[in-house]
Amino acid sequence: MDPKSTASGLRSGRRYGDSIFSALSVSAGVVILLVLVGVTFFLLFGAKDALLADSSEVRGGNGLVAYVGPLIFGTLLSSIIALIIAVPLSIGIALFISHYAPRRLAAGLGYVVDLLAAVPSIIFGLWGMQIAQSAVPSFEFLNEYLGWIPLFSGSVTTTGRTMLMIGIVLAIMILPIMTAVNREVFLQTPRLHEEASLALGATRSEMIRQTVLPFGQSGIVSGAMLGLGRALGETMAVAIILSASGGGYSWELLTSNTPGTIAGDIALNFPESFGIERSTLFVSGLALFVVTFLVNMFARWIVSRRSEFSGAN
């Protein structure tokens, strides 16, 4: 057999395979864009009646801004609380698994974290509803000693179903996925960087601050955004804990004057809504879609600014 013809056939086969792979990749990208456009038009079509209706006809009777605004505020507030709690915990757990725990213990903990990420959200909601009452003494303690801070001021509700409880439950929900992402990113830190830091006299904690955390910054942001995306769209856990909200804008985390969230409000009210009221809920869904889209764009911008850092540098 002619070696030249054999080599030519191999090159032709590779080019054919590359063409197929390229076509499949482009098709997948186009499908994603089409789905995104389709969801946008679906929400706009469902929301058009409320967008064109008089403000008195909109659910609540005070217009779309008065109805959707507090829900957006409550959605962002609960998600930010969840991130504040979950981000440092996820980093600490991931560092323990990747750099401190013995190998067998680390493998077991990693497996448990992956399993927790698969727990349905309704389980967390039921757990939060059960412990809400027992959390009231802790809330009263915060109100007594930190009541001078607007977040912990006001009259503590006796039910325990507060914005702070929602934030805690959401933090526990998003903690596994954020920990899993951070763990994998920390394990990718170049061994050469770690050994060089230790060789220069750094302790393990100093080595982590000098090499692991800087290398994993973009991964930490990506994990946080994945968790934020789940927190923003969480439905059942919020609906179970916060079955009714006081509405309006309120920074008080321990009172019954709690703004609802978009996803929870839709889950609670959509089955009984018709006409303009249902269209108003579509407007809420459209607002959540836009907020999530903007948050992800902001996250991509942060990650792109960190992209110049590489393990090869």
From TrEMBL:
Keyword entries, A-Z: Cell membrane, Membrane, Phosphate transport, Transmembrane, Transmembrane helix, Transport
Keyword Glycoprotein listed: no
GO biological process, one term: phosphate ion transport
Molecular function as annotated in GO: phosphate transmembrane transporter activity
Subcellular location: Cell membrane
SUPFAM superfamilies: MetI-like
Stored PROSITE patterns: ABC_TM1
Domain ABC transmembrane type-1 per the UniProt entry, residue ranges: 72-299
GO CC annotations on file: plasma membrane
Highest taxon, organism lineage: Bacteria
Topology relative to the membrane: Multi-pass membrane protein
Main location: membrane
Chain ranges passing through the membrane: 20-44, 64-97, 109-129, 162-181, 281-303
Functional note: Part of the binding-protein-dependent transport system for phosphate; probably responsible for the translocation of the substrate across the membrane.
UniProt record similarity statement: Belongs to the binding-protein-dependent transport system permease family. CysTW subfamily.
Identification of the protein by name: Phosphate transport system permease protein
